Amino acid sequence: MRLTFAAGVLSLFSYVCHASAEAAGSPGVAAVPDKYNTLPGVDWNRTYAPTEPQQIHLSFGSESKYARVQFATLEQVDKAILRYWPKSKKNRVSRYGKDWAFVDGGAEHRTIYLHDIKTENLKPATIYSYQVGAAKNGNTTWSSVYEFHTASKHNTFEFLAIADIGINNAVALPQIIKAAESHKYDFLTLSGDQAYNMDDFNGLKGDEYMNLLQEVYAKVPYMGVPGNHEGAYNFSHYKNRFANLPFEESKSPNSLLYSFNYKSLHLVSFSTEVYLTGTEDMIETAVNWLNSDLEKANKQRDERPFIVVITHHPLYCSSQGSDCTTTAKMLREGPLKADNVTRHDGLEPILLKHKVDMLLTGHVHNYERTYPVANDSRTAESYKNAPSYMQVITGNAGQPEGGAEFTSGPYKDWSAVRYSGYGFSTVRVSPTELTLTHHEAKKDGSLGRVIDEFTISK
Predict the structure, then answer these.
(1) 203-214: per-residue pLDDT in tens?
(2) What Pfam families does the entry give (predicted)?
């Protein structure tokens, strides 16, 4: 106990000493309490007991037939436990899973212990209560009780869609927490960039972020994709902290690539970071997996008519900087191979070939919607039976780096709506329509107006 406490003091000391004049919570800068992260029930920067469960979050398998709950402890435990039950009943099921030590790649090689537990088959249209526990030396420390719900028996559902959120200046977080508590949304997609950065201060900032977002991720299953801010140590923080994503079900090597089915939707998570930082073999593996997954999904279009792909980097954007010019073009066309002549398959031809309906992205810190688009040109003004995919950037949940300015124009014909404030999106899916609504998050933490709404129809 004394050694553990001393190590904690040293880590905290190094954490504080790295603070600078840059914005609080920026990469390499300590996070501090602000009006968006000091909310009732939110407890991200306190000291946790060595075996106390923390960083609780869940994900779904296809059709919410099962859930996987992951959490962390600061010490190795004898047994990690998940117990859950239908809210209306008292018969509890206890499950055990896999445990491992995650060692941060920083100078201290700081270690936390992660636990991933899968439920048995879940009943549809059911609200489940659950809690996790950590047992050591005959004593078990239990978490608070959380709730989630499985897919209803109706053919329409909604999910939340956000991107680019930090510990500080998370303007949309108060409204996202309210949405998570409402039982209105079946899961949440996050198109990359969290914490800014998880590996900061030997992983302490990652712990703080996961405890902050526990108020969302423990209630609404997280179905996200990594961004460039998760890239440290070969994405080790992301791969370990989100090891409960359904990548094995998707026949993928890790949680950077996966897909799952949910009623009328096939959702694909594809890390665009592979194009930017991956080896040639990694790029080929990712592209082959994506083509194979989408080919299979297209054969099931009668059952699941909509295909949505979530990535971090956009293929089109109207903001200032190279992300919207050279990088976007490279992602569309594919990066050059080692011979500097031929290219790997770009993302756009794959989306067009497999008739993807929508690309959900982040990275650029604003909101922008395109018309149906291909080859840097608008292909239609209507979203009814569109000839190509369309793209939405929803990268404005709020983070310490601030917003992204749009260029002064003129804008390309594919750019339909641009909004530089803060917000989050909700998506409603039925067998014939997919409707995305983007909501304003005001700087006082309240919910603002509807910024944009559109419908893709079949």
Answers:
(1) 999 999 999 999
(2) Metallophos, Metallophos_C, Pur_ac_phosph_N
